[in-house]
């Protein structure tokens, strides 16, 4: 099979906002406790943060991290997590049927993000709480001093403001599982009111309104239109969330699921622009895809833990073991985000450590990389600059849901400053390699610097603490540019990065 692509630096989708390589850490399962934070661990620093995990997060390249939830935030009192640790209350976390010790809160997380070379993206509780708690948290984090909450922060040992730029107005407020779930009208009004008060405290912040929890929600579409109708002036982004599972799907149909992500993004863009036109405004709402990943291996076990275990600190929830094929779907999802770089300005892989995560830890033991770690790391490292609209002509296969699915899923990025082009490509074929022929047009003089591949003889192969390098990327030789034409071979079921300069 042969696929053809055409690349031109003038065919631009848009500038890539580095925040599309964001992550998410929720007080859920072992993400925080025994994930990023484990005092007594051989690598723990003076604050109890695991250095081995920080090393992996820095290597992954995550410029922004959403915190502290997720469903957790809809029952969270942020005040519980600041001030002297020995006075912080232990609470019932109703979202995940867990005990919350509050050893880690906003200030500790601010320190952690600095150590991770990242920034905080904070969510406020619009479930059990509202405008008052939200504006107080902005004052606590961002006001320099001389007011009640900013002086509290200074008293707590943080003289300088955290300057948190991006704030989420609640989490999945359309979901019946959410504490304090709401109708679109109830939420739209609250988002506008809380957002207005938060921006009065600090006008420089950016706000994310909750979109639908997934495209399959019965209120999808109507929810976005109503919320934006009510809150358009106060918000800057609308959120999207998606987790793909495999169910009874075979590998080709499973890998086709990223086409649903393209559809979801395009539908939300249309709704944003519909409200914009109706209101006759210039301001555009952008997209924050602030939860995306694959999640299905652990669902049964999660249910069992949630229903049967006693209340405990950090139960092992959502500890997915990702396979090679999961990494390929995650790669296709990253490609989908890049293909919509003009409108998707923030995205967070959900989550970062232990919970549906690229990084896993053993309490007291090592930290290791899942299969999905690699496509993310490659995209974050090499997918900078401008996303290019690539002309793709690929053979296709039939699929019951998406009719015709291209074997080749691909996007290119152009980093003008470093004069580098990266092609990210997944070969969805189980049986055959895909020969890639590229017309490089104006990229005269460019050659193949490196061709990286993630593949494995077994599509269900995983990594583990015992075998952390079972699935990992390698370099492929033989890819070349001849007379302005790229020639490369993509192995069956593979993630590829072809770097040209
Ligand atoms: O990321 C795990 C959970 O998935 C989040 O708490 C929630 O927002 C989503 O349903």
Detailed description of the structure:
The radius of gyration is 23 Å and the shape is globular. With 501 residues, it is α/β, with parallel strands linked by helices. It is 26% helix and 25% strand. The strands form six sheets. Strands 3-4-7-8-9-10-11-12 form an eight-stranded parallel beta barrel, surrounded by six helices. It folds into two domains: 4-8 and 388-500, Golgi alpha-mannosidase II (Immunoglobulin-like, Sandwich); 17-382, Glycosidases (TIM Barrel, Alpha-Beta Barrel). It is built from eleven helices and 26 strands. The mean pLDDT is 97. α5 (184-201) packs parallel to α6, α6 runs parallel beside α8 and α10 runs parallel beside α11. The protein has helices at residues 51-60, 106-115, 131-142, 148-155, 184-201, 222-231, 251-255, 258-279, 299-308, 324-339, 373-382, and strands spanning 2-6, 12-15, 22-24, 64-67, 91-93, 98-100, 119-124, 166-169, 206-209, 237-244, 286-294, 344-350, 359-361, 367-369, 386-388, 391-393, 396-399, 403-406, 408-415, 420-427, 434-439, 448-454, 474-475, 480-482, 485-490, 494-500. Bound molecules: alpha-L-arabinofuranose (AHR). GO terms for molecular function: alpha-L-arabinofuranosidase activity. It catalyses: Hydrolysis of terminal non-reducing alpha-L-arabinofuranoside residues in alpha-L-arabinosides.
Strand order of the largest sheet: 3-4-7-8-9-10-11-12
Shape by Cα distribution: globular
- Helical content (DSSP H or I, runs of 4+): 25-40%
> Whole-Å distance between the termini?
26 Å
EC number: 3.2.1.55
Domain Alpha-L-arabinofuranosidase C-terminal: 290-494
GO biological process, one term: polysaccharide catabolic process
Catalytic activity: Hydrolysis of terminal non-reducing alpha-L-arabinofuranoside residues in alpha-L-arabinosides
């Amino acid at each position: 099979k042969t696929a053809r692509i055409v690349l031109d630096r003038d065919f631009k989708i848009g500038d890539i906002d580095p925040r599309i390589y964001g992550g998410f850490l929720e007080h859920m399962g072992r993400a925080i406790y025994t994930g990023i934070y484990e005092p007594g661990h051989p690598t723990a620093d003076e604050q109890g943060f695991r250095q081995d995990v920080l090393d992996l997060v820095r290597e992954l390249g995550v410029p922004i991290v959403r915190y502290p939830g997720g469903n957790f935030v809809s029952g969270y009192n942020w005040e519980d997590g600041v001030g002297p640790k020995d006075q912080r209350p232990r609470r019932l976390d109703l979202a995940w049927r867990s005990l919350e010790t509050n050893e880690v809160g906003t200030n500790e997380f601010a320190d952690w993000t600095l150590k991770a070379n990242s920034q905080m993206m904070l969510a406020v509780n619009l479930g059990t709480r509202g405008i008052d708690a939200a504006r107080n948290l902005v004052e606590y984090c961002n006001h320099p001093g001389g007011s009640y909450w900013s002086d509290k922060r200074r008293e707590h040992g943080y003289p300088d403001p955290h300057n948190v730029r991006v704030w989420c107005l609640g989490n999945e407020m359309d979901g019946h599982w959410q504490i304090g779930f709401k109708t679109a009208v109830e939420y739209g009004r609250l988002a506008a009111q809380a957002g207005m008060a938060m921006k009065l405290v600090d006008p420089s912040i950016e706000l994310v309104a909750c979109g639908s929890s997934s495209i399959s929600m019965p209120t999808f579409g109507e929810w976005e239109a109503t919320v934006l109708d009510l809150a358009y002036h106060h918000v800057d982004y609308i959120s999207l969330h998606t987790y793909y599972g495999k169910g009874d799907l075979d590998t080709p149909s499973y890998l086709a699921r990223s086409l649903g992500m393209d559809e979801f993004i395009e539908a939300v863009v249309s709704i944003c622009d519909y409200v914009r036109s109706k209101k006759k405004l210039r301001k555009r709402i952008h997209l924050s895809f602030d939860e995306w990943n694959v999640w299905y291996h652990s669902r049964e076990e999660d249910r069992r833990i949630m229903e049967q275990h006693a209340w405990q600190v950090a139960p092992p929830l959502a500890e997915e073991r990702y396979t090679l094929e999961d990494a390929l779907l995650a790669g296709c999802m990253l490609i989908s985000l890049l293909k919509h770089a003009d409108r998707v300005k923030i995205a967070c892989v959900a989550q970062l450590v232990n919970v549906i995560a690229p990084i896993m830890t053993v309490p007291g033991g090592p930290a290791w990389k899942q299969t999905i770690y690699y496509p993310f790391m490659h995209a974050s490292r090499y997918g900078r600059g401008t996303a290019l609209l690539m002309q793709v002509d690929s053979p296709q296969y039939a699929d019951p849901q998406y009719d015709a699915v291209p074997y080749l899923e691909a996007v290119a990025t152009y980093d003008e400053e470093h004069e580098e082009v990266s092609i990210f490509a997944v070969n969805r074929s189980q049986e055959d390699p895909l020969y890639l022929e590229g017309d490089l047009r104006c990229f005269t003089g460019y050659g193949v610097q490196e061709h990286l591949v993630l593949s494995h003889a077994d599509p269900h192969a995983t990594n583990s603490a015992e075998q952390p390098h079972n699935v990992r990327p390698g370099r492929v030789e033989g890819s070349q540019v001849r007379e302005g034409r790229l020639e490369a071979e993509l192995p069956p079921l593979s993630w590829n990065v072809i770097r040209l300069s």
